[in-house]
Amino acid sequence: MRGVVLAASAGALISALLVALGYRDGPFEFPRRPFSWHLVAGVARHRETRLATGGYLGHMWELYAMWTWVPAFLAASVAASASDVSPSAVSVLAFAAIAAGGAGAVWGGAAARRLGYARVVTMAMAISGICSLVVGLLFGRSLWLLAPVVLVWGFFVVADSAQFSAMVTELSPPHAVGTALTLQTSLGFLLTMVTIQLIPAMVSLVGWPLAFPVLALGPAAGIASIRRLGARFTPTARP
Question: In 10 A of CB 15, how many CB atoms?
Fold first, then answer.
């Protein structure tokens, strides 16, 4: 545990240093719009912002619960299979499933420029939702069958993350961008507390094979929200 804390702390310090030395504003700057309680009601009434935030909440319903519990799921699956897979192999696969999100984020950003935000987030949520439904069917099976699904899930579960922030930035009223982004992020992380606690309750109730499908409710709701938005979005410069 001490090593984990030290490694995480070192990573945070390195990240802060990289931001301090390497961060530059992009080419499409617009005036800073700080959070304001006076703008919350207006943001909540703004249809496009509300629907984009709804998509983000569907994404967050799934993301952190997946990251939190996939390592435990893999360990339990290997134990149930009574195979001779080493604990270190399980740890590497769990790490790879989470790390795959880095490649997914790069893909999501590149694809959004070609396909538009709405198509990318819909595709990512559809694939990750399918993975959450399928992965339990492979519980206790060979790790060679389970690993590809978990890695694909890890890739797509985070591939749409940045696109929701971009959508809210572009769609919200210009004077309320800071308030809209703060509400989006705060509500999303608050929601993760629900599903992180929900998964172990589901495991106790129905077992690991049926625990993860509840996460598919998030992508389903997110896709419905984005479909109601009804537009094909591409990155644009903002005044």
Answer: 10
Q: Is there a contact between 85 and 77 (Cβ–Cβ < 8 Å)? A: no
DSSP string, the chain: -HHHHHHHHHHHHHHHHHHHHH----SS--------GGGHHHHHH-HHHHHHHHHHHHHHHHHHHHHHHHHHHHHHHHHHHT----HHHHHHHHHHHHHHHHHHHHHHHHHHHHH-HHHHHHHHHHHHHHHHHHGGGGTTS-HHHHHHHHHHHHHHHTTTHHHHHHHHHHHS-GGGHHHHHHHHHHHHHHHHHHHHHHHHHHHHHH-GGGTGGGGGHHHHHHHHHHHHH----------
Per-residue pLDDT of 151-189, as tens digits, reads 999 999 999 999 999 999 989 999 999 999 999 999 999
CA–CA gap between residue 159 and residue 80 (Å, rounded): 31
The tokens describing 66, both together, are 């997946």
Inform me whether the pLDDT recorded for 219 exceeds 50: yes
Count of beta carbons in the 10 Å neighbourhood of residue 167: 29
Query: Residue 237, Cβ neighbours under 10 Å: how many?
Result: 10
**pLDDT(234) > 90:** no
Whole-number Å distance between alpha carbons of 149 and 112: 24
Q: pTM of this prediction? A: 0.88
pLDDT in tens, 78-107: 999 878 888 899 999 999 999 999 999 999
Rg of the chain on CA atoms, in Å: 19
| pLDDT value of position 72 | 96
